[in-house]
Amino acid sequence: MDKPVFFSVVIPTYNREKFIGNTLDTVLAQTHPHYEIVVVDNCSTDGTERVVAQYVESGKIKFIKHEQNYERACSRNTGMDNASGDYLTLLDSDDFMHPDCLADAEAFAKQNPQLPCFHNLYDLVDSDRKTVYQYKFPSLKNRHAAIVAGNFMSCIGTFLHREIYRKYRFDTTQDLTGGEDWEFWLRVLADNEVGRIEKVNSSILHHEGRSVNNQNLETMERGLAYLVSKFRRDEHLSGVYGDYLDRIEANCFLYLNLLANDGKMRKSALAYLKRSARADLRIMLTERFVRSLRRTVMG
Questions:
Q1: 270 exposed, middle or buried (CB, 10 Å; 0-12, 13-18, 19+)?
Q2: At what angle do helices 180-191 and 217-233 cross, to 10 degrees?
Q3: Fewer CB within a 10 Å sphere, N or C end of the chain?
């Protein structure tokens, strides 16, 4: 590459033969030219590597293959370790960037050098890339309250300056898989202000094979219990989130309620709802709790 790399686009992947080509196409179609793509393959057993190989001659792709499946947290860490951009952005291998995503991010970064962490808006799209759901995003006036209420950062449309992505790593605890991104952003936002590009520049593809549609309830419960325990035991994190620790735990149970409802496990869903209220009674006044209660009771 004869130009400085402004962005590193880290794409973890596992058995995404049917999707990763479309994802790479949206990166290679960016109007901003100064980027690299770091694809980290978790030892796929399908044709993912073959598909990526067709794109290597673009000169913008670093392809790294793990010798075994270490899950997404490890892949993202590997991508960070091998990135060289001034900024790094994460992209799952079935999701999309809009054409001006990186151009708008560069403009924002240069206009707001005091914000080494920022994100753009994203939506949920179908196979025709038509919006099926537009996510709501919280105010950033209190970043701690915003991230405690739910993982609005996700792992799409987020941008980290080198000083951040060289410092932080995803927790690779196995049971945390599925919640590792929220845990990561809770730590990043504990110490760093976050900015926002008020434009939908990224899209999540809705399909049955999405990881969020295939989470094990018992494993997720153990992982979220680990997250809560970790934050309560950590002197720095408990100091930052002291007033919010109960709310973190309550929101963990609300997420488990969501998974239980998705699995038609109404008894478990109701139990998680009760545990959420016991963790923090104030959560019963939130819109999220009311929606969860309505869905649990009415089905």
A1: middle
A2: 20
A3: C
Distance CA 185, CA 182 (A): 5
pTM to 2 decimal places: 0.94
Q: Which CATH architecture does the domain made up of 7-212 adopt?
A: Alpha-Beta Complex (3.90)
Give the residue among 94, 89, 93, 68 at the shortest CA–CA distance from 79. Answer: 89
- Distance CA(19)–CA(14), nearest Å, equals 11
Q: Using a CB cutoff of 8 Å and minimum separation of 24, what contacts does 1-4 make?
A: 1/36, 1/59, 1/60, 3/33, 3/34, 4/34, 4/86
Domain limits, CATH 3.90.550.10, in the chain: 7-212
Question: Model confidence over 243-284: pLDDT tens digits?
Answer: 999 999 999 999 999 999 999 999 999 999 999 999 999 999
Length of the chain: 299
